[in-house]
Design brief:
The chain has about 300 residues and is mainly alpha-helical. It folds into 2 domains: about 20-225, Rhomboid-like (Rhomboid-like fold, Up-down Bundle), CATH 1.20.1540.10; about 245-295, no CATH class. Helices cover about 55% and strands about 5% of the residues. It contains 11 helices and 2 strands. It has helices at about 20-40, 45-50, 60, 70, 80-100, 105-125, 135-150, 170-190, 200-220, 260-275, 285-295; strands at about 155-160, 165-170. The chain has a two-stranded antiparallel ribbon with strand order 1-2. The chain is elongated.
Length: about 300
């Protein structure tokens, strides 16, 4: 029976795990994995070698570990729980606000672009001096810039030092973070005076740059203007070929009083559903399927 098919049921709905949930789960899994690698192996060198293959450093890039430009974001300081907690809180709240605007795929793209750009900016500053980079703060900075560009005047409340609630506008928060990281880059990171916090200011600035580039040239640009839930990339207008005008085929009606003719037409529509999906049906075809359920069930 047609009504037994899953795509003909009114209550049919597919629930998928959101991209935000996957990102958070990946970061938590990376934190658990690094703790196992560093604390559970009897030989500490084994855990250290595993960590070296995932964290970002000039040495690993020279050896060809290109994936560390992204994998470093899954690792956090195992001795500072607030390191991973702060990044998870930032990604969660910014993600909840941005996913409806950007869509799932573009949200993941912004996160990944911020992470890679932040890693490249950090490598540019540490290519000679060396060191290693871990943490997803570049993604948080990139998402914050996108959020501030989309909602510059919307007041938000943050916990300063996890205790004092402070309400301010996103544009001021983004500008304040930009000034903080520029100062830290010029007067702390580049001269090699990291201090007790050991903040990767260059990675933050790289993430912020990726977020700004996305908003300025992609989200606000004509060449990628599309619905939020659509992940397809469209070419700029000046690159699109002029489409030839296609004369629509003359409309015709089938004689559906015959059961054989009706069954043939239903089979054609079902084949169309299997190949292109239920959403590709016209309103007439959907109406025909609804009527056919009753007509074919009669004896």
């Amino acid at each position: 029976m047609l009504s037994d098919r899953f795509y003909m049921r009114d209550n049919y709905e597919r629930k998928t795990t959101s991209a935000l949930t996957w990102i958070i789960c990946a970061i938590v899994a990376g934190f658990i994995f690094e703790n196992i690698a560093l604390r559970w192996f009897s030989n500490p060198e084994v855990g250290r070698s595993v960590m070296r293959s995932l964290e970002l450093s000039p040495e690993t890039i020279r050896e060809g570990f290109i994936w560390t430009l992204a994998s470093y974001s899954l690792l956090h300081d195992p001795n500072q729980f607030f390191h991973i907690l702060g990044n998870l809180v930032g990604i969660y709240f910014l993600g909840r606000a941005l996913v409806p605007f950007l869509g799932q795929r573009r949200f993941v793209a912004v996160c990944l672009a911020s992470i890679i750009t932040g890693g490249l900016a950090w490598l540019a500053c540490h290519w000679i001096t060396g060191g290693n980079l871990i943490g997803a703060s570049a993604a948080v900075c990139g998402l914050l810039v996108v959020f501030a560009c989309l909602n510059p005047e919307q007041p938000i409340t943050i916990l300063l030092c996890w205790i004092l609630p402070v309400t301010l506008k996103p544009k001021y928060l983004a500008l304040g973070l930009l000034a903080f990281d520029l100062f830290g880059l010029l007067f702390l990171e580049v001269p090699g005076r990291h201090g007790s916090l050991d903040v990767a200011h260059s990675a933050h600035l790289g993430g912020m740059l990726a977020g700004w580039i996305y908003f300025r040239y992609i989200h606000s640009g004509d060449w990628l203007r599309q619905p939020a839930g659509n992940g397809k990339i469209e070419l700029p207008n000046w690159l699109r070929k002029a489409r030839k005008t296609i004369t629509p085929s003359p409309a015709f009606k089938l004689n559906l009083t015959s059961r054989e003719t009706l069954r043939t037409e239903v089979d054609r529509i079902l084949d169309k559903i299997n190949s292109t999906g239920f959403a590709s049906l016209t309103s007439e075809e959907k109406t025909l399927l609804d009527n056919a359920k009753d007509m074919l069930s009669r004896r």
